[in-house]
């Protein structure tokens, strides 16, 4: 039985997972299946034991993959075997006792306001592409939406009178995001300009020059190219703009519940991640600005 296809159908139709998530799961499971066939001469994924998985982990390390990448692959495997357990194809998940590999988690630092403002000085809005690229960054930073959500926005999803944008988030969950007058004006300008292009007949807001719906790598390339011009950060991605959106709101005093709703997080735990990232900055503020800390710092220098 093709358990992998059955599992992917379950994720797609019952769990409503996004296409890029399904692609990642498929790649991880096919990779593992090939290893099992080549190493153990078996195609029976329902008969896999943990020592076989441990052997695969060693194989992945030999390929110089990072711990975070290996952990992601193992998570795919664990979810897959939980599914087989659920439908009664196995009696025990071979991943049940597995613990994630410990990796040094790098602190994700948001773009500074100076970097954000610097990017907006780079766009050549005299050209259609320059205006579109500016709008991509503008929407991501003004709303905190995900790359996939931006790609899927249709013009009909924008309510100019109510000043809000409807987005389809993870697992097809809809949410409404408020939009400023400034952002809406830029969207109107882009729509008018888009309508003047003979090729642009699609209902999607963000498109290629040929008028087709934008794709993930296009959004990434736009963000990466512009932010690399103003930032020394290694990671210049759409997710980093989303991260900056939340961090900057938090720094300005926004409450976690509001940020959670804006970002479309399922739980507050996901949003609390930003308080940890902000803690370093808060400690610096206390150390440099609090009267007792200032006097103590001066004494230490003597």
Helix content: 55-70%
The second-level CATH architecture of the largest domain is Orthogonal Bundle
Rg to the nearest angstrom?
Answer: 23 Å
Backbone shape: globular
Overall mean pLDDT score? 88
Give the strand order of the largest sheet, numbering strands 1, 2, ... along the chain.
1-2-3
Strand content: under 5%
- Structural class comes to mainly alpha
Q: Could you name the ranges where pLDDT drops below 50 across 5 or more consecutive residues?
A: none
User: Would you count the extended β strands for me?
Assistant: 3
Number of helices: 13
Distance between the first and last residues' Cα: 75 Å
- In sequence order, what are the helices and strands, one letter per element? HHHHHHHEEEHHHHHH
- CATH structural class of the largest domain: Mainly Alpha
Largest sheet: 3 strands, antiparallel
- The CATH homologous superfamily of the largest domain corresponds to Intergrase catalytic core
If you consult CATH, what is the topology of the largest domain? hpI Integrase, Chain A
Number of domains: 2
Written account of the structure:
This protein has helices at 3-14, 19-40, 50-62, 67-86, 113-120, 128-143, 147-151, 181-196, 216-227, 238-251, 256-263, 268-289, 291-301, and strands spanning 158-159, 164-168, 174-178. It is built from 13 helices and three strands; from the N terminus they run H-H-H-H-H-H-H-E-E-E-H-H-H-H-H-H. A three-stranded antiparallel sheet has the order 1-2-3, with no helix packed on it. Helix content is 59%, strand content 4%. The protein has two domains: 3-86; 113-286, Intergrase catalytic core (hpI Integrase, Chain A, Orthogonal Bundle), CATH 1.10.443. It starts with a helix and ends with a helix. Helix 6 (128-143) crosses helix 10 (238-251). With 302 residues, the chain is mostly helical.
């Amino acid at each position: 039985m093709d358990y992998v296809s059955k599992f992917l159908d379950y994720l797609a139709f019952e769990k409503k997972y996004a296409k890029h998530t399904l692609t990642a799961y498929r790649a991880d499971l096919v990779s593992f299946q090939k290893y099992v066939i080549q190493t153990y001469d078996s195609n029976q994924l329902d008969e896999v034991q943990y020592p076989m998985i441990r052997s695969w982990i060693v194989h992945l390390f030999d390929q110089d993959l990072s711990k975070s990448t290996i952990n992601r692959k193992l998570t795919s495997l664990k979810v897959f075997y939980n599914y087989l357990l659920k439908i009664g194809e196995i009696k025990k998940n071979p991943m049940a006792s597995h613990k994630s590999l410990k990796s040094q988690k790098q602190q994700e630092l948001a773009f500074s306001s100076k970097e954000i403002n610097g990017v907006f000085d780079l766009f050549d809005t005299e050209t259609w592409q320059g205006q579109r690229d500016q709008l991509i960054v503008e929407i991501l930073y003004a709303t905190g939406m995900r790359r996939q959500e931006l790609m899927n926005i249709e013009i009909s999803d924008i309510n100019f009178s109510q000043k809000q944008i409807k987005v389809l988030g993870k697992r097809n969950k809809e949410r409404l995001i408020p939009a400023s007058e400034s952002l809406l004006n830029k969207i109107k300008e882009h729509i008018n300009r888009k309508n003047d292009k003979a090729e642009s007949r699609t209902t999607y807001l963000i498109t290629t020059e040929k008028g087709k719906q934008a794709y993930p790598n296009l959004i990434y390339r736009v963000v990466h190219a512009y932010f690399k011009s103003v930032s020394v950060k290694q990671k210049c991605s759409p997710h980093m703009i989303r991260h900056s959106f939340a961090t900057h709101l938090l720094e300005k005093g926004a409450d976690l519940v509001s940020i959670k709703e804006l970002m479309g997080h399922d739980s507050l735990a996901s949003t609390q991640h930003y308080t940890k990232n902000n803690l370093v900055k808060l400690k610096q503020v206390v150390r440099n600005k609090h009267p007792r800390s200032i006097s103590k710092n001066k004494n230490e220098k003597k």
